[in-house]
Write a structure and sequence with these properties.
Blueprint (H helix, E strand, L loop, with lengths): L7 E4 L2 H4 L3 H9 L3 E4 L7 H27 L7 H24 L3
Parallel strand pairs: 1-2
Helix pairs in contact: 2-3
Length: 104
Amino acid sequence: MTWQAKATLLIAKLDRLARNVAFIATMMEAGVDFVACDQPFASRLTLHILAAVAEDEARRKRTDLAAAKARGKKLGSPVARKTVARARAARSAYVAKANETTPR
């Protein structure tokens, strides 16, 4: 006789698990138990509907961001952009200094 533990996957929000209805359905069909903290008493039907809404939101967001980028809008945080630029400048300065001090 073998004993197998049955675990339940606990997730904060359903849309964090997957934004793909097929993935959620496959998990359900495979017998994976999971509980979404934002919808702890949701039925299978409710979970499918919420997954479909999350999938549609993700698709819409991708198309909206692609359209904004095509219009020339700079995406992302301006603070992060400045931080990345400073980090790249520091790295370039470091490499340049290292190349100066390396004997040839």
